[in-house]
Design a protein that fits this description.
This protein has about 190 residues and is mainly α. A two-stranded antiparallel sheet has the order 1-2. The protein has a two-stranded antiparallel sheet with strand order 3-4. β1 and β2 form a beta hairpin. The chain is built from five helices and four strands. The chain has a single domain, classed as Hypothetical Protein Ta1238, Chain: A. Homotrimer.
Length: about 190
């Protein structure tokens, strides 16, 4: 099998159910999810397997689920096959958020990406995830999508924030507080 096909040389690409322009909102959405998946893989490379075995397992699951998100976003019409992303996947993210958040100290102020090497990598994932979510919102204005993908990305960005804080905590680093931040978060109960 050859890697190049030359079928995209005219500015079109294949999606499930047809061909669209390479800058179509659908391609922008699943392309940004693909970009996020690459950043997740990069962030995993910063994690010490001895300290972060659980996180590495969860991130690998997320990489597979991001492929599912991209697959659902590449689907022009839902009648081609059932969607892959579902509400159970979103609930699983919420479970992980609660689990990792329980490890970290209370936060009351905005924080900046920083601390250990792995923490800012998680913040990069968080910001790319937010952009992917924005691209999905744009797509949903004009085309049919699996709304669970939007919910998944929204919750996933919250998980990346929590993982960034957990990474700092496990590495013995403090979060970098934004100096001019007022107290904006309530303490955990």
């Amino acid at each position: 099998m050859k890697i190049y096909t030359r079928t995209g040389d005219a500015g079109k690409t294949g999606v499930i159910g047809g061909r669209v322009d390479k800058d179509d909102d659908r391609v922008e959405a699943y392309g940004t999810v693909d970009e996020l998946n690459s950043f997740v893989g990069q962030a995993m490379g910063f994690l010490d397997p001895a300290k972060f075995a659980d996180m590495l397992d969860d991130l690998l699951t997320i990489q597979h689920e991001l492929f599912d998100c991209g697959s659902d976003l590449a689907l022009l019409k839902q009648d081609k096959r059932p969607y892959k992303v579902n509400s159970d996947m979103v609930e699983n993210l919420e479970t992980w958020i609660d689990k990792y958040d329980a490890e970290t100290p209370d936060i009351t102020r905005f924080i900046l990406p920083g601390g250990s090497q792995s923490s800012p990598a998680m913040h990069v994932c968080r910001t790319v995830c937010r952009r992917a979510e924005r691209r999905v919102v744009t797509l949903a204005r004009t085309q049919e999508i699996n709304s669970d993908v939007r919910h998944y990305l929204n919750r996933l960005s919250d998980l990346f924030f929590t993982l960034a804080r957990t990474a700092n905590f496990r590495e013995g680093q403090s979060d970098v507080e934004y100096l001019r931040s007022a107290e904006v978060f309530r303490r955990k109960s």
